[in-house]
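Show me any protein, keeping tokens residue-aligned.
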Amino acid sequence: MSNRSFAQHALSDWMQGTGPEADIVISSRTRIARNLRGHPFPMLATSEQSSEVMERLLTVPEGGRLNGIGEFETIRLSELSELERRVLVEKHLISPNLANESRSGAVILSRNESISIMVNEEDHLRIQVLSPGFQITEAWELASRIDDIFEEVADYAFDERRGYLTSCPTNVGTGIRASVMMHLPGLVLTQQINRILSAITQVGLAVRGIYGEGSEALGNLFQISNQITLGQSEHEIIDNLHGVAKQIIDHERAARSRMLQESRIRLEDRVFRSYGILSHASIMESKESAQRLSDVRLGIDLGLIQHVTPKAMNELMVLTQPGFLQQNSGEKLTAEQRDIRRAELIRQHLQSESNHGGV
């Protein structure tokens, strides 16, 4: 991977619109939080102590221990611009918290960007694996392999009764956060989403927006993840999430089918109205963009729109984010300039899809 290549293309491999149940499940993610025994956790550590931890953990990729997994690049955040760090956040490759920690933070990134290993985030080490579609078990198995490799050189902070020790008490135990990113316009439009989300929270799962805790569920995208990390085994956590996500998929498919049968004209009007606005608008705010891209994506998945690919929609979801818009423009933009550039970019992409696919 060439230096800064993450900023040159919008789509990581896990965002290509492929994988099982990809019309509903955008991606599956497993994240493992670990800390080193005998070292202050990041929030209490001095710059020197954080730098010591970083250098120790970076011996893993630099020593070739991850070669059996794939090809990796080590990126020290202190070497990145603010815009480049924001692009990494928009691609879900680092957290907003790590983006703000530029002194002694780093990310170890695989060539296809499906593996992102964060150093000195909220915890010393956060191993993240992203897979396309509904592959939560596969993502967990790969993350576990990487965890074993790091444990060969790092003495983890572990308590026999409490499990792995983490900065946030909600991660103590297994240290695992597993999640699926789901596109649920059917449940939203049929007004079932609140009932479904309420039921989800009652079985130990959390619902967040596209960028995790505290973010809004823009574009009908919801991140479903485990809340409990203590008192359950890793396999119990993964199996529980898998089972609940499968039920949500079934409910979403039923809602989409019902809309096609009972209100097809209204559904077509919504989809093509959004497509028309996206194809011709001169100004497009972020929130409206997310919603109208969601409508078009639904139309693609239901076969109402056949000349635009899901991959194009995934790409636009990333390219239209503020960091990417400014990175591609080569300058900082005002809010209005971003809205104008966003609309232009969407028009260009839809026109290109139309030319290649043929209406």
About this structure: The chain has two domains: 5-252, 263-357.
